[in-house]
Amino acid sequence: MVAVDFTASNGNPRLPDSLHYVDPSGRPNAYQRAILEVGEVLQFYDSDRRFPAWGFGARPIDGPVCHCFNLNGSSTYCEVEGIQGIMMAYTSALLNVSLAGPTLFGPVISNAAKIAGQSLASGHHRYFVLLIITDGVVTDLQETKDALVKASDLPLSILIVGVGGADFKEMEVLDADKGERLESSNGCVAIRDIVQFVPFRDVQNGEISVVQELLAELPTQFLSYTRNRDIRPSY
Length: 235
Prior knowledge:
Blueprint: E1 2-5, H1 30-42, E2 50-56, E3 58-60, E4 69-70, E5 79-81, H2 82-96, E6 97-99, H3 106-121, E7 128-134, H4 141-151, E8 156-162, H5 169-175, E9 195-199, H6 200-204, H7 210-214, H8 218-228
Parallel strand pairs: 1-2, 1-7, 7-8, 8-9
Antiparallel strand pairs: 2-4, 2-5, 3-6
Helix pairs in contact: 1-2, 3-4
Organism: Eucalyptus grandis
Pfam families: Copine (PF07002)
InterPro entries: Copine, Copine_C, vWFA_dom_sf
């Protein structure tokens, strides 16, 4: 699953200094690079290569600001076909929405958790990965924590790529890499860590591979879920 940040802090997509600028030469912007590089690896773990894809923080034509809309423009289904389907839906969305705000993660995470929860309730042994690409500091930090704590018992991991030059300290809190599990507003503690965050500027400086860094914790997160649920491999 993929969620793309369409908040106004990204800059006017028609101008070259925007993080959403689509270069006529074909050179991918940071959002396109993240979709391509991460998607090229993860797509092989999805048998039908159909991906739920959303945008958030934008105002669709003739509508209010939406914090989780279908990237393909459909009002009924959110899936697109393959990585190219995500790329085409992303480019199309840039022409059909107005960038707005604020930056809210809660609705997107809740949508992803709903899909994972429905799969679990149906008895399917599937594991879901949500890729969020964002340029800004999350505005609904406590609501996001609540959504993450609630989702921590579901077959779900969340990969966050931060693009641009924002201060992403709050993202490190969501990542919970220092051993402190997230706590919700009502005092519930996350069953496990399900978030991995990587700032894209580190990748652009050649310090790390975005895919390697993003996926570093995914095997451990997956195994912690299967152990918690006592799910064993079927041979």
